[in-house]
Inverse folding.
C-alpha cells in the first residue's frame, strides 16, 4: 500500500516538474516574441528571421463555413506572396488560424486565445457581422486590431452608442453603400427616372439597402413610383408585381436574397414586365440562375464586391495567381476580400513601422488610395473603406462585368 | 385590365390550394381525420417528381404518375403505421399524431437530402397568352385543368364506383358498414392512397408553376388547403375546389391593395370567420345530429 502511494507521489512529482518546465519554455518563447515585436519601433530591427503573428478567426466549420473557407484561401495566397517578396521590413507574416465554428460565443473565445495566448498583432475575421461584433470587446481591451473581410453591417465598426470602435476595421463596403451604388447606376448609367422598390420586409439587410437606394435615387432627381414588400419564404409574387407594373416604373430595385429574387424575376417576366431589375450581393448565387431561368435574368444587374472578369490589371494578376495555387478555380468575392484584408493590414503594419496594435490602428485609419483587388480603398472616419463597387450584368445566365461605380 | 390580371393571378394560386384541398377534404370526409401530414406528402410528391425528371430523365406525364404512385404508397404506409391503431382513440390523439408524422416527414427529408432548395426543371412549354391585356401563362391554365380533371375523377370514384360506395358507407357508419361485409381497413387504405396521390400530383404541379421546391414547402400550402377545405365545407369534394379558388382570389386581392405582408393573416381571418358564422362551409348544409 505504502509503496504504491510512494510510486504515485513520485510519478506526480515527475509529471509536475515536466509541466512546469513546459510552461517555462512557453513563457520564454512568448517573452522573446514580445521583445521582437517591440524591436522595430525601438532599435530599428535586428534583421530578419522574426515573424509578425496575425490571427485568423474564421468560420471554418458550421453554418457559413463556405464563407470562412473562401476567406482562408485568399489569406493563404496573400501571405505566401508577401513572404516570398521578403515579408514586411524583413519580417515574415505568420498566420494562426482558429475555427470559430460559425458561432458568436466561439468567436469570442477564439479572440481571447489569439490575443492573450498567441499575442498576435492583429486579427483578420470573422466572415459575418455577428461573429465579428462578438470580438469587439476583447480586441479593444487588448489593443489588438480587428479587420473583418466581409462583415457588412454598419454596427460592426460603430457601436450602439454611435462611437467608433477604435480597433475595428473592415475591407468590404457596408450594406447601405450598395443601395447608393445601385441608385447612382440607375440614375446615371441607365438614365431612368421612375423606379419601384420591392423589398424583403423580414430582413435588415434588405431594408438597409432599400432606404439608401430611395435617398440617393430621389436626390439624383428620380422618383419612387411604387414601394412594395414581401415576406421571406413567399412563393407567389404575381399580385404585387401586377400592382407594381400598373405604376409603370422604368426600373425595379429588389434588395433581397436569391431564393425569393429568382422567383420574383421569373414571375415578373411572365407578367410582361420587361424593365431592368437590380439588387445587391444577396443575389450572388448559382441558384438564382436556376430559379429565374437564364432568359428571364437578362437585363438585370447586381452590385458586388468584385468581378473576376474585370479587365483591371491588379485583378487579373490576382485571378491568375489564385488559379495557379488552387487548381484553376476562379476566385469568388470572399476569396478576393480575404486576400485584400492581408494586403490592407500589411500596408498598415508597414506604415506603422511596428507590430504594436495601437500603432497599426492609427496607420490603418489613415489608409488612403490603396489599390486592392476589390477596389481602391480609403478608410473613412467610421473605419469603413470608401471604395468602388462593381456592377455586374446577367447575360444568358452568366455574370458579365459591366462597370465600376464610385461612391 | 389590372383587375383581370389580378383575377387570373388569384385563380392560378387558388387552383394549387384546391388541388391540395381535394385530398385533404376526402380523407376528412371518409374517416373524420384532419391529416396534417397531407402537406408533407405534397412536398414528397414534388421531390419525387423532381428526381424522376432530373435523375431518371422521365418526361412530364410519367414523372407525374411516378410521383402520384409513390405518394399513394407513402399515404398508405402513414395510415398503417401511425393512424390505424388510433382509430378508436380520441380525435385529439389522432390529430397530435398527424402533427408528429408531419414533422417526421419534414425533418426526415432534411436529414436525407439537406435543406437547400431545388429549382424544378421546366418540363412544360411556358407560353404566355394575352387576353384583354392580361398575361396568362400556359402553365397556370394547365394547373387549373389538372385540378378540374382530378376533381371530376374523384367525384366519379366516390359516387359511381364500388370502392366509392364503400367509402361513403364507411363515412356514414363504419360499424354498420363492417356488419354489411365491407372491408373497412381496405376502404380506408384506398382513401389514403387516392388522397395522397392527389397530394403528389399537386406537388408536381406546384414545382412546375412555382419552380422552387424545398423540404418545408408543404407547411404553408398545407395549412392554406385546410382553410380552403373548411371554407368550401370540409368533406365535400366540389367544396374544396370552390374554397381553394375563393381563398386564392381573396389572398391575391389583399396583395393587390398593397397589403401583401398581410396575406397569410387574411387566410386565417377567413378561417376564423367561417368557423364562427358558417362552420359547415360554403357548400355545407346545417344537418342536425340524428339520435
Amino acid at each position: 500500500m505504502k509503496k504504491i502511494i510512494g510510486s504515485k507521489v513520485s510519478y506526480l512529482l515527475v509529471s509536475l516538474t515536466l509541466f512546469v518546465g513546459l510552461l517555462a519554455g512557453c513563457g520564454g518563447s512568448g517573452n522573446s516574441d514580445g521583445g521582437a515585436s517591440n524591436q522595430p519601433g525601438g532599435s530599428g530591427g535586428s534583421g530578419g528571421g522574426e515573424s509578425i503573428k496575425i490571427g485568423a478567426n474564421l468560420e471554418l466549420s458550421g453554418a457559413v463555413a463556405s464563407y470562412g473557407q473562401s476567406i482562408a484561401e485568399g489569406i493563404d495566397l496573400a501571405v505566401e506572396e508577401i513572404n516570398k517578396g521578403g515579408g514586411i521590413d524583413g519580417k515574415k507574416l505568420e498566420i494562426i488560424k482558429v475555427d470559430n465554428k460559425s458561432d458568436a460565443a466561439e468567436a469570442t473565445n477564439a479572440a481571447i486565445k489569439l490575443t492573450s495566448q498567441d499575442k498576435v498583432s492583429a486579427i483578420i475575421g470573422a466572415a459575418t457581422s455577428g461573429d465579428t461584433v462578438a470580438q469587439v470587446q476583447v480586441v479593444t481591451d487588448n489593443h489588438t486590431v480587428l479587420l473583418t473581410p466581409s462583415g457588412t453591417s454598419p454596427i460592426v465598426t460603430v457601436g450602439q452608442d454611435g462611437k467608433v470602435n477604435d480597433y475595428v476595421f473592415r475591407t468590404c463596403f457596408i450594406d447601405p453603400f450598395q443601395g447608393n451604388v445601385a441608385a447612382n447606376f440607375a440614375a446615371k448609367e441607365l438614365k431612368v427616372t421612375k423606379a419601384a422598390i420591392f423589398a424583403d420586409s423580414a430582413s435588415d439587410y434588405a431594408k438597409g439597402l432599400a432606404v439608401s437606394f430611395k435617398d440617393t435615387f430621389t436626390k439624383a432627381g428620380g422618383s419612387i413610383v411604387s414601394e412594395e414588400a414581401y415576406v421571406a419564404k413567399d412563393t407567389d409574387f404575381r399580385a404585387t408585381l401586377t400592382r407594381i407594373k400598373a405604376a409603370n416604373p422604368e426600373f425595379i430595385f429588389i434588395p433581397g436574397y436569391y431564393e425569393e429574387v429568382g422567383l420574383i424575376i421569373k414571375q415578373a417576366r411572365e407578367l410582361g414586365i420587361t424593365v431592368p431589375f437590380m439588387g445587391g450581393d444577396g443575389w450572388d448565387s448559382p441558384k438564382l440562375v436556376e430559379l429565374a431561368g437564364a432568359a428571364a435574368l437578362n437585363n438585370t444587374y447586381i452590385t458586388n464586391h468584385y468581378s473576376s472578369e474585370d479587365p483591371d490589371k491588379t485583378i487579373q494578376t490576382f485571378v491568375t495567381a489564385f488559379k495557379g495555387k488552387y487548381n484553376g478555380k476562379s476566385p469568388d468575392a470572399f476569396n478576393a476580400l480575404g486576400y485584400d484584408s492581408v494586403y490592407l493590414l500589411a500596408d498598415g503594419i508597414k506604415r506603422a513601422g511596428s507590430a504594436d496594435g495601437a500603432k497599426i490602428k492609427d496607420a490603418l485609419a489613415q489608409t488612403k488610395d490603396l489599390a486592392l483587388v476589390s477596389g481602391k480603398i480609403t478608410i473613412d472616419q467610421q473605419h469603413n473603406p470608401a471604395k468602388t463597387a462593381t456592377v455586374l450584368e446577367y447575360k444568358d445566365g452568366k455574370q458579365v462585368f459591366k462597370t465600376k461605380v464610385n461612391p | 385590365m389590372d383587375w383581370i390580371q389580378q383575377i387570373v393571378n388569384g385563380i392560378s394560386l387558388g387552383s394549387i390550394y384546391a388541388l391540395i384541398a381535394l385530398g385533404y377534404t376526402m380523407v376528412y370526409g371518409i374517416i373524420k381525420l384532419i391529416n396534417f401530414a397531407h402537406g408533407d406528402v405534397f412536398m414528397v410528391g414534388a421531390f419525387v417528381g423532381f428526381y424522376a425528371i432530373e435523375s431518371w430523365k422521365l418526361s412530364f406525364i410519367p414523372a407525374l404518375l411516378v410521383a402520384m404512385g409513390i405518394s399513394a404508397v407513402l399515404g398508405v404506409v402513414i395510415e398503417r403505421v401511425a393512424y390505424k391503431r388510433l382509430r378508436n382513440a380520441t380525435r385529439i390523439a389522432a390529430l397530435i399524431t398527424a402533427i408528429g408524422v408531419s414533422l417526421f416527414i419534414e425533418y426526415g427529408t432534411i436529414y436525407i437530402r439537406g435543406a437547400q432548395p431545388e429549382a424544378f426543371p421546366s418540363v412544360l412549354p411556358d407560353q404566355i397568352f394575352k387576353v384583354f391585356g392580361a398575361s396568362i401563362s400556359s402553365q397556370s391554365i394547365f394547373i387549373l385543368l389538372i385540378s378540374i380533371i382530378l376533381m371530376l375523377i374523384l367525384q366519379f370514384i366516390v359516387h359511381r364506383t364500388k370502392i366509392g360506395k364503400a367509402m361513403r358507407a364507411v363515412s356514414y357508419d363504419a360499424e354498420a358498414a363492417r356488419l354489411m361485409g365491407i372491408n373497412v381497413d381496405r376502404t380506408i387504405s384506398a382513401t389514403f392512397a387516392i388522397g395522397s396521390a392527389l397530394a403528389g400530383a399537386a406537388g408536381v404541379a406546384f414545382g412546375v408553376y412555382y419552380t422552387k421546391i424545398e423540404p418545408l414547402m408543404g407547411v404553408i400550402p398545407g395549412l392554406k388547403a385546410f382553410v380552403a377545405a373548411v371554407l368550401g365545407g370540409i368533406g365535400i369534394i366540389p367544396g374544396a375546389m370552390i374554397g381553394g379558388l375563393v381563398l386564392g382570389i381573396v389572398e391575391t386581392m389583399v396583395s393587390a391593395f398593397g397589403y401583401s405582408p398581410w396575406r397569410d393573416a387574411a387566410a386565417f381571418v377567413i378561417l376564423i370567420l367561417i368557423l364562427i358564422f358558417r362552420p359547415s362551409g360554403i357548400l355545407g348544409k346545417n344537418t342536425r345530429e340524428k339520435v
Q: What stands out?
A: Chain A has two domains: 8-173+317-387, 175-304.
